[in-house]
C-alpha cells in the first residue's frame, strides 16, 4: 500500500505545484513508483510544470465520471520511468469532483504506486478539502511571510479536523516546507526566520528551499528542478526534503544561493 | 535619518512574528469553539418566535471580540404591520 501525501498551503502562489513536481520527481528518481495528482480543477498547471501539457488526453474528472480508465488518464513521464501524472480537468464545474469518486481513484492509485502526491488547489474550500481528504501525510508549503504563515495555520487546523485519518482518530503526519527563503534577508531581520515559522506553526520541518532563479527556469522549461538541474541549491534542498519524507533522518541546513562576485558587487538578488 | 532609524526599519521580522503569534492564538481559540453567533441567533429567534412573528432577516446578531471583553450586539426589528403578537392573534 502506497502513501498518500497532500501538498497544500491555503495561500496561492507559494509553490505547491512546483514543490509537488520537484518532490515527486525526486522520490521517483530513487526507483519508487510515484503518481502526481492535480486537484486544481479548472486551473490545472501541474501538467505545464511537468512539461506534459501537450500529452493530456483524459483527466481526473473523466476517470471519476467513468468516461476514461485510470490507466488511460495517467501520463508517464518521459524522463523518469516510474513517474506518472494524473492531470486535473479544465471544466468550470466546481462539483465535478465527488468525495466518493476521489476516494475510489486514490484507493486504486494507492494499490499501484508507492507514493501518491496530491497537488491541492489554493484556498480552504471543497477542492482543497478533497485533495487532503484521503491523505496519510501532509506537506504544508509556506513562505516566510505573514499571510502565508497565517494561512498555513488554517490549513493545519483543517488537516487535523477534516481528513479521513483525523476523523478516524488517527494522526496525520504533517511537515512544513519553507519555500522562497532568503537566508541573508532573514539574518538581517527583514524576513521571518525558520525558527520563527516553526515556533509559530509547531509542525516539524521537511526542508528549506532557497529563493532561486533555477526554480523559475525549471518551470519555463517544463521540468521539475530536481530533474533538470539537480546540482543547484533549490534542487538539492528538494532532494534532501524528499529523502526526509521517505523517513531518512537528515539534518536540515539553511541553504545559501551561491552568488558570483559581480552579483554581490551589484547587490543583485536571486530571482 | 540616524543610525537607529536604519536599524529599526530593517528589523521588521520580530514585528511580523509577534503579530502572528497574537493573531493565531486568537484564531485558534475561536476555531475550536462551534460557531457561537449562529447558535445564539437560532436560539434567540426561537424565543422571539414564541411571542412575535418576525422574519429571519429582521434579527441581526454580531459579536465584537476584544482583548479582555467581547460585545454581543443583537438587533431585532419588529415591523409594525406584520408583527401581530401571537396572543392577540390567537
Automatic annotation (TrEMBL), chain B:
Molecular function in Gene Ontology: identical protein binding
Pfam families: MinE
Keyword set, alphabetical order: Cell cycle, Cell division
Protein's GO biological process: cell division; regulation of division septum assembly
Xref: HAMAP family: MinE (MF_00262)
Protein family: Belongs to the MinE family.
Function: Prevents the cell division inhibition by proteins MinC and MinD at internal division sites while permitting inhibition at polar sites. This ensures cell division at the proper site by restricting the formation of a division septum at the midpoint of the long axis of the cell.
Protein name, per record: Cell division topological specificity factor
